[in-house]
Design brief:
Layout: E1 2-5, E2 12-15, H1 21-33, E3 38-41, H2 47-58, E4 62-66, E5 69-73, E6 87-88, H3 93-103, E7 109-113, H4 124-133, E8 136-139, H5 140-143, E9 145-151, E10 159-161, H6 167-177, E11 182-187, H7 195-202, E12 207-210, E13 213-218, E14 225-228, H8 233-245, E15 250-257, H9 264-272, E16 275-284, E17 287-295, E18 304-305, H10 317-325, E19 330-333, H11 346-356, E20 360-364, E21 367-371, E22 380-382, H12 387-397, E23 404-407, H13 419-426
Helix pairs in contact: 1-2, 1-3, 1-7, 2-3, 3-6, 4-6, 8-10, 8-12, 10-12
Protein backbone atom coordinates (compact mmCIF):
# COMPACT_ATOMS: atom_id res chain seq x y z
CA UNK A 1 0.00 0.00 0.00
CA UNK A 2 1.22 3.49 -0.88
CA UNK A 3 0.39 6.59 1.15
CA UNK A 4 0.95 10.15 -0.06
CA UNK A 5 2.06 12.59 2.65
CA UNK A 6 1.70 16.33 2.06
CA UNK A 7 3.78 18.99 3.84
CA UNK A 8 1.97 20.65 6.78
CA UNK A 9 2.09 23.99 8.52
CA UNK A 10 1.19 22.84 12.00
CA UNK A 11 0.13 19.95 14.22
CA UNK A 12 -2.66 20.77 16.66
CA UNK A 13 -5.33 18.94 18.62
CA UNK A 14 -6.12 16.54 21.42
CA UNK A 15 -5.59 12.82 20.88
CA UNK A 16 -5.27 9.43 22.46
CA UNK A 17 -2.85 6.92 20.99
CA UNK A 18 -3.48 3.15 21.02
CA UNK A 19 -2.71 1.02 24.05
CA UNK A 20 0.92 0.29 24.83
CA UNK A 21 2.13 -2.67 22.75
CA UNK A 22 4.62 -3.96 25.31
CA UNK A 23 2.10 -3.82 28.16
CA UNK A 24 -0.66 -5.34 25.99
CA UNK A 25 1.47 -8.43 25.27
CA UNK A 26 2.25 -8.88 28.94
CA UNK A 27 -1.30 -8.24 30.10
CA UNK A 28 -2.58 -11.00 27.80
CA UNK A 29 0.09 -13.54 28.62
CA UNK A 30 0.20 -13.01 32.39
CA UNK A 31 -3.59 -12.90 32.65
CA UNK A 32 -3.68 -16.36 31.08
CA UNK A 33 -1.47 -17.54 33.98
CA UNK A 34 -3.79 -16.17 36.65
CA UNK A 35 -6.02 -18.50 38.63
CA UNK A 36 -9.02 -16.19 38.35
CA UNK A 37 -10.47 -14.12 35.48
CA UNK A 38 -8.74 -10.90 34.46
CA UNK A 39 -10.36 -7.94 32.71
CA UNK A 40 -8.17 -5.87 30.37
CA UNK A 41 -9.09 -2.31 29.42
CA UNK A 42 -7.32 -0.35 26.68
CA UNK A 43 -5.71 -3.36 24.99
CA UNK A 44 -3.98 -2.51 21.71
CA UNK A 45 -5.83 -3.88 18.69
CA UNK A 46 -3.06 -4.59 16.21
CA UNK A 47 -1.43 -7.50 14.39
CA UNK A 48 1.29 -8.23 16.96
CA UNK A 49 -1.19 -8.40 19.83
CA UNK A 50 -3.49 -10.62 17.78
CA UNK A 51 -0.55 -13.02 17.37
CA UNK A 52 -0.13 -13.30 21.13
CA UNK A 53 -3.86 -13.78 21.69
CA UNK A 54 -4.14 -16.44 18.97
CA UNK A 55 -1.19 -18.42 20.40
CA UNK A 56 -2.77 -18.33 23.87
CA UNK A 57 -6.10 -19.47 22.41
CA UNK A 58 -4.31 -22.39 20.77
CA UNK A 59 -3.03 -23.27 24.26
CA UNK A 60 -6.57 -23.26 25.67
CA UNK A 61 -6.99 -19.75 27.08
CA UNK A 62 -10.48 -18.29 26.71
CA UNK A 63 -11.21 -14.69 25.72
CA UNK A 64 -14.49 -12.78 25.67
CA UNK A 65 -14.75 -9.17 24.46
CA UNK A 66 -17.46 -7.13 26.14
CA UNK A 67 -18.07 -3.37 26.09
CA UNK A 68 -14.58 -2.57 24.87
CA UNK A 69 -12.89 -4.74 27.46
CA UNK A 70 -11.35 -8.19 27.12
CA UNK A 71 -12.09 -10.83 29.73
CA UNK A 72 -9.40 -13.48 30.05
CA UNK A 73 -10.13 -16.86 31.63
CA UNK A 74 -7.00 -17.42 33.66
CA UNK A 75 -5.91 -21.04 33.84
CA UNK A 76 -3.19 -20.93 36.46
CA UNK A 77 0.31 -22.12 35.71
CA UNK A 78 -0.70 -25.69 34.87
CA UNK A 79 -3.96 -25.30 32.98
CA UNK A 80 -2.63 -25.05 29.43
CA UNK A 81 -3.32 -27.70 26.80
CA UNK A 82 -0.89 -29.18 24.32
CA UNK A 83 -1.48 -27.27 21.07
CA UNK A 84 -2.67 -29.18 18.02
CA UNK A 85 -1.03 -26.69 15.63
CA UNK A 86 2.21 -24.74 15.39
CA UNK A 87 2.07 -21.60 17.53
CA UNK A 88 2.50 -18.77 15.03
CA UNK A 89 3.96 -15.54 16.47
CA UNK A 90 3.60 -13.75 13.12
CA UNK A 91 5.96 -10.78 13.04
CA UNK A 92 6.12 -10.37 16.81
CA UNK A 93 9.43 -10.94 18.59
CA UNK A 94 7.75 -10.18 21.91
CA UNK A 95 5.21 -12.94 21.34
CA UNK A 96 7.89 -15.47 20.43
CA UNK A 97 10.31 -14.73 23.25
CA UNK A 98 7.80 -14.32 26.07
CA UNK A 99 5.86 -17.38 24.96
CA UNK A 100 9.09 -19.39 24.99
CA UNK A 101 9.33 -18.64 28.72
CA UNK A 102 5.78 -19.87 29.31
CA UNK A 103 6.24 -23.00 27.17
CA UNK A 104 9.42 -23.90 29.04
CA UNK A 105 7.28 -24.65 32.09
CA UNK A 106 4.68 -26.84 30.33
CA UNK A 107 4.67 -30.67 30.53
CA UNK A 108 4.19 -31.09 26.78
CA UNK A 109 5.82 -30.44 23.40
CA UNK A 110 4.99 -27.40 21.31
CA UNK A 111 6.47 -25.76 18.23
CA UNK A 112 6.81 -21.99 17.94
CA UNK A 113 7.24 -20.28 14.58
CA UNK A 114 6.71 -16.92 12.86
CA UNK A 115 6.81 -15.12 9.54
CA UNK A 116 9.88 -14.84 7.31
CA UNK A 117 11.13 -11.71 9.08
CA UNK A 118 10.75 -13.18 12.57
CA UNK A 119 12.49 -16.40 11.53
CA UNK A 120 15.60 -14.29 10.83
CA UNK A 121 15.66 -12.65 14.26
CA UNK A 122 17.97 -13.92 17.05
CA UNK A 123 16.47 -16.39 19.52
CA UNK A 124 19.55 -17.95 21.12
CA UNK A 125 19.60 -15.09 23.61
CA UNK A 126 16.45 -16.60 25.13
CA UNK A 127 16.81 -20.33 24.38
CA UNK A 128 20.23 -20.55 26.03
CA UNK A 129 19.15 -19.49 29.55
CA UNK A 130 15.89 -21.44 29.27
CA UNK A 131 17.95 -24.55 28.57
CA UNK A 132 19.98 -23.77 31.70
CA UNK A 133 16.70 -23.83 33.63
CA UNK A 134 15.94 -27.32 32.28
CA UNK A 135 13.82 -26.83 29.17
CA UNK A 136 14.54 -28.99 26.14
CA UNK A 137 14.66 -26.76 23.04
CA UNK A 138 15.61 -27.63 19.48
CA UNK A 139 15.50 -25.54 16.34
CA UNK A 140 17.39 -24.12 13.40
CA UNK A 141 21.03 -23.10 13.82
CA UNK A 142 21.32 -24.74 17.25
CA UNK A 143 18.08 -23.10 18.42
CA UNK A 144 19.22 -19.66 17.33
CA UNK A 145 16.25 -19.18 14.99
CA UNK A 146 12.58 -20.09 14.70
CA UNK A 147 10.92 -22.54 14.35
CA UNK A 148 11.66 -23.85 17.85
CA UNK A 149 10.34 -27.06 19.38
CA UNK A 150 10.08 -26.80 23.16
CA UNK A 151 9.55 -29.63 25.61
CA UNK A 152 8.90 -28.07 28.98
CA UNK A 153 8.78 -29.64 32.39
CA UNK A 154 10.46 -29.31 35.75
CA UNK A 155 12.53 -26.14 35.79
CA UNK A 156 15.24 -25.18 38.25
CA UNK A 157 16.02 -21.64 39.43
CA UNK A 158 19.14 -19.96 38.12
CA UNK A 159 20.98 -16.67 38.53
CA UNK A 160 21.45 -15.06 35.14
CA UNK A 161 22.95 -11.75 34.04
CA UNK A 162 21.58 -10.41 30.76
CA UNK A 163 24.37 -10.20 28.15
CA UNK A 164 22.26 -7.93 25.91
CA UNK A 165 19.80 -5.12 26.63
CA UNK A 166 16.62 -7.12 26.04
CA UNK A 167 13.47 -6.75 28.13
CA UNK A 168 12.04 -9.64 26.11
CA UNK A 169 14.73 -12.03 27.34
CA UNK A 170 14.36 -10.75 30.90
CA UNK A 171 10.59 -11.21 30.71
CA UNK A 172 10.86 -14.76 29.31
CA UNK A 173 13.08 -15.77 32.24
CA UNK A 174 10.81 -14.12 34.82
CA UNK A 175 7.82 -15.98 33.37
CA UNK A 176 9.73 -19.29 33.42
CA UNK A 177 10.78 -18.51 37.01
CA UNK A 178 7.12 -18.70 38.06
CA UNK A 179 7.38 -22.47 37.51
CA UNK A 180 10.60 -23.02 39.50
CA UNK A 181 10.79 -24.18 43.09
CA UNK A 182 13.01 -21.58 44.69
CA UNK A 183 14.33 -18.14 43.85
CA UNK A 184 15.37 -17.22 40.32
CA UNK A 185 17.53 -14.10 39.95
CA UNK A 186 17.84 -12.07 36.77
CA UNK A 187 20.44 -9.31 36.72
CA UNK A 188 19.64 -6.50 34.31
CA UNK A 189 22.76 -4.31 33.91
CA UNK A 190 20.99 -2.23 31.24
CA UNK A 191 17.86 -1.19 33.19
CA UNK A 192 15.55 -2.33 30.38
CA UNK A 193 11.80 -1.69 30.46
CA UNK A 194 10.20 -3.14 33.59
CA UNK A 195 6.59 -3.78 32.50
CA UNK A 196 6.80 -7.48 33.35
CA UNK A 197 8.01 -6.82 36.90
CA UNK A 198 5.22 -4.30 37.45
CA UNK A 199 2.57 -6.60 35.99
CA UNK A 200 3.71 -9.58 38.06
CA UNK A 201 3.63 -7.46 41.20
CA UNK A 202 0.16 -6.20 40.26
CA UNK A 203 -1.09 -9.82 39.98
CA UNK A 204 0.39 -10.78 43.35
CA UNK A 205 3.61 -12.60 42.44
CA UNK A 206 6.41 -12.77 45.00
CA UNK A 207 8.88 -10.57 43.14
CA UNK A 208 11.54 -8.32 44.64
CA UNK A 209 14.23 -6.03 43.26
CA UNK A 210 17.60 -5.09 44.74
CA UNK A 211 19.47 -2.69 42.51
CA UNK A 212 19.66 -4.30 39.07
CA UNK A 213 18.75 -7.77 40.42
CA UNK A 214 15.17 -9.06 40.08
CA UNK A 215 14.20 -12.08 42.21
CA UNK A 216 11.13 -14.28 41.73
CA UNK A 217 10.03 -16.90 44.25
CA UNK A 218 8.34 -19.86 42.66
CA UNK A 219 6.16 -21.73 42.19
CA UNK A 220 3.87 -18.73 41.96
CA UNK A 221 0.16 -18.13 42.25
CA UNK A 222 -1.17 -15.18 40.25
CA UNK A 223 -4.48 -13.61 41.26
CA UNK A 224 -7.10 -12.25 38.90
CA UNK A 225 -8.22 -8.66 38.70
CA UNK A 226 -7.88 -5.92 36.15
CA UNK A 227 -5.34 -4.38 33.77
CA UNK A 228 -5.66 -0.86 32.42
CA UNK A 229 -3.31 -0.38 29.46
CA UNK A 230 -2.11 3.23 28.97
CA UNK A 231 -1.32 4.87 25.64
CA UNK A 232 1.88 3.73 23.94
CA UNK A 233 4.73 6.24 24.15
CA UNK A 234 6.41 4.51 21.19
CA UNK A 235 3.32 5.25 19.08
CA UNK A 236 3.02 8.78 20.45
CA UNK A 237 6.69 9.50 19.69
CA UNK A 238 6.02 10.47 16.07
CA UNK A 239 3.21 12.86 17.02
CA UNK A 240 5.35 14.37 19.78
CA UNK A 241 8.19 15.06 17.35
CA UNK A 242 5.83 16.42 14.68
CA UNK A 243 4.17 18.85 17.12
CA UNK A 244 7.52 19.96 18.52
CA UNK A 245 8.81 20.75 15.01
CA UNK A 246 5.93 22.95 13.86
CA UNK A 247 6.07 26.69 14.66
CA UNK A 248 2.51 26.85 16.01
CA UNK A 249 2.26 23.23 17.05
CA UNK A 250 0.24 22.36 20.14
CA UNK A 251 -0.77 18.79 20.88
CA UNK A 252 -2.38 17.34 23.99
CA UNK A 253 -1.95 13.58 24.37
CA UNK A 254 -4.19 11.94 26.96
CA UNK A 255 -3.54 8.89 29.13
CA UNK A 256 0.05 8.27 28.04
CA UNK A 257 2.29 5.67 29.65
CA UNK A 258 5.33 7.46 31.06
CA UNK A 259 7.19 4.56 32.66
CA UNK A 260 10.72 5.90 33.38
CA UNK A 261 12.28 2.86 31.64
CA UNK A 262 10.49 3.99 28.45
CA UNK A 263 10.57 7.80 28.61
CA UNK A 264 14.09 8.43 27.34
CA UNK A 265 12.75 10.21 24.25
CA UNK A 266 11.02 12.82 26.40
CA UNK A 267 14.26 13.49 28.29
CA UNK A 268 16.27 13.88 25.09
CA UNK A 269 13.72 16.10 23.35
CA UNK A 270 13.76 18.39 26.39
CA UNK A 271 17.55 18.40 26.20
CA UNK A 272 17.22 19.42 22.54
CA UNK A 273 15.03 22.33 23.63
CA UNK A 274 11.50 21.02 23.04
CA UNK A 275 8.62 22.30 25.19
CA UNK A 276 7.06 19.20 26.79
CA UNK A 277 4.92 19.23 29.93
CA UNK A 278 3.60 16.26 31.89
CA UNK A 279 0.18 16.92 33.46
CA UNK A 280 -2.15 14.91 35.73
CA UNK A 281 0.54 12.40 36.68
CA UNK A 282 -0.86 9.26 38.32
CA UNK A 283 -0.43 5.49 38.60
CA UNK A 284 -2.80 2.87 37.22
CA UNK A 285 -2.40 -0.87 37.71
CA UNK A 286 1.25 -0.38 38.65
CA UNK A 287 2.18 1.80 35.64
CA UNK A 288 2.93 5.57 35.68
CA UNK A 289 0.50 7.50 33.48
CA UNK A 290 0.16 11.19 32.57
CA UNK A 291 -1.21 13.58 29.97
CA UNK A 292 1.41 15.26 27.78
CA UNK A 293 1.28 18.78 26.34
CA UNK A 294 3.65 19.47 23.44
CA UNK A 295 4.18 23.04 22.21
CA UNK A 296 6.08 23.76 19.02
CA UNK A 297 8.07 26.80 17.99
CA UNK A 298 11.29 26.10 19.88
CA UNK A 299 14.59 25.88 17.99
CA UNK A 300 15.99 22.43 18.64
CA UNK A 301 19.70 21.72 18.95
CA UNK A 302 21.70 18.59 18.19
CA UNK A 303 22.78 16.27 20.99
CA UNK A 304 24.95 13.24 21.71
CA UNK A 305 22.90 10.18 22.59
CA UNK A 306 24.34 6.93 23.94
CA UNK A 307 25.06 4.85 27.02
CA UNK A 308 22.43 3.99 29.61
CA UNK A 309 19.64 5.98 27.98
CA UNK A 310 19.56 3.79 24.85
CA UNK A 311 17.44 0.96 26.36
CA UNK A 312 14.98 3.65 27.50
CA UNK A 313 14.28 4.78 23.92
CA UNK A 314 15.40 1.98 21.62
CA UNK A 315 12.03 1.88 19.82
CA UNK A 316 11.84 5.67 19.63
CA UNK A 317 15.18 6.21 17.87
CA UNK A 318 13.49 6.47 14.44
CA UNK A 319 11.42 9.38 15.82
CA UNK A 320 14.50 10.93 17.43
CA UNK A 321 16.33 10.71 14.10
CA UNK A 322 13.56 12.74 12.46
CA UNK A 323 13.79 15.42 15.16
CA UNK A 324 17.57 15.55 14.62
CA UNK A 325 17.09 16.37 10.93
CA UNK A 326 15.68 19.76 11.89
CA UNK A 327 17.87 20.56 14.91
CA UNK A 328 20.77 22.95 14.78
CA UNK A 329 24.14 21.21 14.64
CA UNK A 330 24.96 17.51 14.72
CA UNK A 331 23.24 14.67 16.54
CA UNK A 332 25.16 11.48 17.28
CA UNK A 333 23.45 8.22 18.27
CA UNK A 334 25.71 5.46 19.60
CA UNK A 335 25.25 2.10 21.33
CA UNK A 336 22.10 1.23 19.38
CA UNK A 337 23.28 -1.86 17.48
CA UNK A 338 20.12 -3.67 18.66
CA UNK A 339 18.32 -1.67 15.95
CA UNK A 340 19.99 -3.89 13.36
CA UNK A 341 17.98 -6.95 14.49
CA UNK A 342 14.50 -5.43 14.61
CA UNK A 343 11.84 -6.00 11.93
CA UNK A 344 14.47 -4.62 9.57
CA UNK A 345 17.96 -3.19 10.04
CA UNK A 346 16.66 0.17 11.21
CA UNK A 347 20.07 1.86 11.22
CA UNK A 348 20.62 1.10 7.56
CA UNK A 349 16.98 1.69 6.60
CA UNK A 350 16.87 5.13 8.25
CA UNK A 351 20.09 6.19 6.54
CA UNK A 352 19.03 4.92 3.11
CA UNK A 353 15.48 6.26 3.14
CA UNK A 354 16.07 9.65 4.75
CA UNK A 355 18.89 10.34 2.28
CA UNK A 356 16.29 10.03 -0.49
CA UNK A 357 14.69 13.15 0.99
CA UNK A 358 18.02 14.98 1.11
CA UNK A 359 19.02 14.28 4.71
CA UNK A 360 22.70 14.41 5.63
CA UNK A 361 23.02 11.24 7.63
CA UNK A 362 25.89 8.80 8.16
CA UNK A 363 25.51 5.19 9.17
CA UNK A 364 27.72 3.82 11.95
CA UNK A 365 27.96 0.19 13.16
CA UNK A 366 25.98 1.03 16.29
CA UNK A 367 24.11 4.18 15.33
CA UNK A 368 23.86 7.31 13.22
CA UNK A 369 25.41 10.73 12.78
CA UNK A 370 22.83 13.27 11.61
CA UNK A 371 23.61 16.78 10.45
CA UNK A 372 20.67 19.03 11.21
CA UNK A 373 19.28 21.95 9.26
CA UNK A 374 18.89 20.21 5.91
CA UNK A 375 15.96 21.11 3.67
CA UNK A 376 14.11 17.96 2.76
CA UNK A 377 12.60 17.26 -0.63
CA UNK A 378 9.58 15.10 -1.28
CA UNK A 379 10.59 11.58 -2.29
CA UNK A 380 9.37 8.05 -2.85
CA UNK A 381 10.46 6.02 0.18
CA UNK A 382 9.93 2.46 1.40
CA UNK A 383 9.06 1.18 4.87
CA UNK A 384 11.13 -2.01 4.49
CA UNK A 385 8.10 -3.78 5.99
CA UNK A 386 8.76 -2.09 9.35
CA UNK A 387 5.97 -0.25 11.17
CA UNK A 388 8.28 2.24 12.88
CA UNK A 389 10.07 3.01 9.62
CA UNK A 390 6.73 3.77 7.94
CA UNK A 391 5.79 6.18 10.72
CA UNK A 392 9.23 7.82 10.83
CA UNK A 393 9.25 8.44 7.08
CA UNK A 394 5.73 9.86 7.20
CA UNK A 395 6.75 12.21 10.03
CA UNK A 396 9.80 13.46 8.12
CA UNK A 397 7.65 13.91 5.00
CA UNK A 398 5.41 16.38 6.86
CA UNK A 399 8.30 18.89 6.70
CA UNK A 400 9.57 18.27 3.17
CA UNK A 401 9.26 20.85 0.38
CA UNK A 402 6.79 18.74 -1.59
CA UNK A 403 4.69 15.60 -1.26
CA UNK A 404 6.24 12.22 -0.51
CA UNK A 405 5.04 8.69 -1.16
CA UNK A 406 5.57 5.97 1.45
CA UNK A 407 5.57 2.48 -0.05
CA UNK A 408 4.72 -0.42 2.26
CA UNK A 409 2.68 1.88 4.50
CA UNK A 410 0.50 -1.07 5.55
CA UNK A 411 3.31 -2.05 7.96
CA UNK A 412 1.73 0.28 10.54
CA UNK A 413 -0.95 -2.37 11.21
CA UNK A 414 1.60 -4.15 13.42
CA UNK A 415 1.28 -1.54 16.18
CA UNK A 416 -0.79 1.48 15.06
CA UNK A 417 -3.44 0.63 12.43
CA UNK A 418 -5.06 4.09 12.46
CA UNK A 419 -1.79 6.06 12.39
CA UNK A 420 -2.41 7.80 9.06
CA UNK A 421 -6.03 8.66 9.92
CA UNK A 422 -4.98 10.22 13.21
CA UNK A 423 -2.17 12.10 11.47
CA UNK A 424 -4.69 13.64 9.06
CA UNK A 425 -6.83 14.68 12.02
CA UNK A 426 -4.12 16.82 13.66
CA UNK A 427 -2.20 18.03 10.58
CA UNK A 428 -3.09 21.23 8.78
Amino acid sequence: MEITVEPVETIRGQIRVPGDKSISHRALLLSSLAEEPVEIEGLLKAADISSTQKCLQDLGTGFVEEKGRLKVSGQGLRGFKEPQVYLDAGNSGTTARLLAGLLAGQPFISTLTGDESLRRRPMKRVTEPLRQMGASISGREDSASLPLTIRGGSLVPISYSLPVASAQVKSALLIAALYCRGITSVIDPFNTRDHTERALRHLGADIKTAGRRIMVQGPARLAGGRFSVPGDISAAAFFIVAAALTPRGELYIENLGVNPTRSGLLDLLKQMGADLRLLNERERCGEPVADLLVKGGRNLRGIKCGGEIIPRLIDEIPALAVAALFAGGETTIRGASELRVKETDRIRALAVELRKMGARIKERPDGLVIEGGAKLNGARCHSHGDHRMAMALATAALFAESESIIEGAEAVKVSFPNFFNLLKKVAS
